[in-house]
Design goal:
By secondary structure, the protein is of the alpha/beta class. It folds into two domains: about 210 residues, Spore Coat Polysaccharide Biosynthesis Protein SpsA, Chain A (Alpha-Beta Complex), CATH 3.90.550.10; about 70 residues. Helices cover about 50% and strands about 15% of the residues. The chain has ten helices and eight strands. Strands 7-5-6-4-1-2-3-8 form an eight-stranded mixed sheet, with helices on both faces. Strand 2, helix 2 and strand 3 form a beta-alpha-beta unit. It is elongated. It starts with 6 loop residues before the first strand and ends in a 15-residue tail after the last strand. The structure holds uridine-5'-diphosphate (UDP) and magnesium ion. Magnesium ion binds next to loops. Uridine-5'-diphosphate binds next to strand 1 and helix 3.
Length: about 325
């Protein structure tokens, strides 16, 4: 097939050996008759199990399958980016390898795209097989994020989405390294619409997002799309200076009247309180600074160790230096 396929499905996979085969079967079954040319791009994000062997076998049997293997684990968002970089389809669907996002929803997304929407994102109306902590922290996080950013990032939506050709072109041009993909796709604009779906439990294996990665992901999201944490230092500064001014007035009056002496407990408490606030704010500055440093280094976002077509180079195409 020399013509461009109509749709590429991009699937990041990190230690998803038992999921690759079933995912492929379900995708092909759900899509084969619905579109004019399909491409399936698996990105192995440095798995330690036989994920790559599964992908390579599939690619050997079916020419529609393409696989990339990272030189090491570069993270979910880098894997998705790599998939979009090499995909040749007109539209691209991003979907997880664990089948939590059912491939059967994709035809509905394609339908909406054909109606003229450039981005069709999946909105989770129910989440199964996830802990109470994960569900509530996710719900809270998306609501806070929406409040503190100017970009309209929909709540309860993950990376499961379809992007049309214009959105794909725009997405490929985004140069940043700290990528919060669902936010970036919202930032792109164009007509966007939601498709509701039921988020299922993982088909096999465990979540590849432990608390540590989730926290980092959340901080990436906030720092990529909001300056509010930085501004909080200014606001707090004004509040503390204002109240200390009032405090000075109060102490002066009490001194003149000669009734009151403040002991060292009070002094100690205020020093510790201020010290704490200052350290937190330096930490916030540090988070932004570290990300700025990361951007300036301009290291590639990922490195490719192997590809099933043998054509993809180790170093990805340089993103435009806008
Ligand atoms: N993933 C990845 N690299 C990582 C972590 C996860 O490519 O470092 C993939 C993973 O294989 C899956 C998707 O990203 O296809 C989403 O991960 P997971 O299902 O573990 O996240 P959850 O659904 O629990 O939020
Ligand atoms: Mg999952």
């Amino acid at each position: 097939m020399t013509d461009r396929p109509e749709l590429s499905v991009v699937i990041p996979a990190f230690n998803e050996e038992p999921n690759i085969g079933p995912m492929y079967d379900r995708l092909v079954k759900a899509l084969e008759s619905k579109i004019d040319g399909l491409e399936i791009v698996f990105v192995d994000d440095g798995s330690k199990d036989a994920t790559w062997e599964c992908i390579a076998n599939l690619a050997g049997e079916d020419r529609r399958v393409k696989g990339l293997r990272f030189a090491r684990n570069f993270g979910h968002q880098a894997a998705v980016t790599a998939g979009v970089d090499v995909a040749s389809g007109k539209a691209i669907v991003l979907i997880d390898a664990d089948m939590q996002d059912p491939p059967e929803v994709i035809p509905e997304m394609i339908q909406r795209w054909r109606e003229g929407f450039e981005v069709v994102y999946g909105k989770r109306i129910a989440r199964e097989g996830e802990t109470f902590f994960k569900r509530t922290s996710a719900a809270l996080f998306y609501r806070i994020l929406r409040r503190i950013t100017d970009v309209d990032i929909p709540a309860d939506a993950g990376d499961f989405r379809l992007m049309g050709p214009r959105a794909v072109e725009a997405f490929r041009a985004l140069p940043e390294r700290n990528r919060f993909i669902r936010g970036l796709v919202s930032w792109i604009g164009f007509p966007q619409i939601a498709v509701s779906y039921h988020r299922e439990a993982r088909h096999a294996g465990e979540t590849k997002y432990p608390i540590r990665k989730m926290m980092r992901f959340a901080v990436d999201a906030v720092t990529s799309f909001s300056f509010l944490p930085l501004r909080m230092a200014t606001v707090l500064g004004f509040i503390v200076s204002g109240s200390s001014f009032l405090y000075i007035l109060l102490v002066s009056v009490l001194k003149v009247v000669g009734v009151m002496r403040f002991g060292h407990t009070w002094l100690m408490a205020s020093i510790l309180f201020l010290g704490g606030v200052q350290l937190v704010m330096i930490g916030v500055l540090g988070e932004y600074l570290a990300r700025v440093f990361d951007e300036v280094k301009r290291r590639p976002l990922y490195l490719v160790g192997e590809s099933t077509d043998g054509k993809t180079g180790v170093v990805p195409p340089q993103r435009p230096n806008l």
